[in-house]
């Protein structure tokens, strides 16, 4: 079942595919931005003449007008380019009361069987196999293509426009492997599931009584990490090691260090002293680790309840995967934005 609360494009496609022939659809894409905007170049969403809105191209401010514009695209069978500029008193964005002050240029394309649904079913198939896609969308006509590529989770991996083509990286879901099955890991799995991530819980001690407390739609396996295939581990982007048993934690760290992984985030339960003891049990030190181990894992957010710890751990994990400093946004230098095209169709 798709995660209906997540806006990850994988989940949007999972919800769209069963409906793609039940209504007429439009693919919306942000192709340029200026100043402060909610979504950046490369953001995608799907809209239908039945009123469906899958995804967001703003913080929710523009979507009602986008739906009206999408219906025009469907009625005329013709793509549209729009500019929403919150700094221009004559622009629709100003009248909608958007307070961000930025501007976004958006293209709306018909998404039909005649144009192979802009290859979105094939993109979804690759995402299901944990393969990323470089998606290429023509700006001036309803035409698209894609090619499989290496996944890169980075906040700097926004789309870019070359000539009249938008290229954007569409990643599969981040895959979190949780080793252990303690009660403190329940909110961790719940929060990661809410984020729309793929979550696997693995513990040789796992039984039905424990499994019942975790989200029903995550993958649970009664197996130690040594029982997971190399092919599976190569699709893992983050690991939380929390067996509440030093020997099991040490065995997990040592085993992961011997595998060919895709440079994952690895977090270890407990304080720094426990981490040193866990590593020492297998003759390891920080200096000799192939894959760095965060211990204690998490950001200093305060709080000691399982829910607070889950937020702390996933915040650090998220920042690591997406190449962020984890500093307050007010302390981060503004991102340079590209310039909007001079002309766009707004009628």
Describe the 3D structure.
The protein is of the alpha/beta class. A hairpin with a 2-residue loop joins strand 8 (160-162) and strand 9 (165-170). The longest helix has 16 residues, at 306-321. The strands form three sheets. It has a six-stranded parallel beta sheet, with helices on both faces. The protein has a five-stranded antiparallel beta sheet with strand order 3-2-1-5-4. Strands 7-6-9-8 form a four-stranded antiparallel beta sheet, covered by helices on one side. It is elongated and about 70 Å long. The chain has ten helices and 15 strands. The relative contact order is 0.12. Mean pLDDT is 89; it is low at 335-347. It has helices spanning 9-16, 63-76, 92-95, 120-128, 186-194, 208-211, 230-233, 246-257, 272-280, 306-321, and strands at 25-34, 44-48, 53-54, 80-85, 103-111, 132-138, 144-149, 160-162, 165-170, 175-179, 198-202, 219-221, 238-241, 265-268, 293-294. It starts with 8 loop residues before the first helix and ends in a 26-residue tail after the last helix.
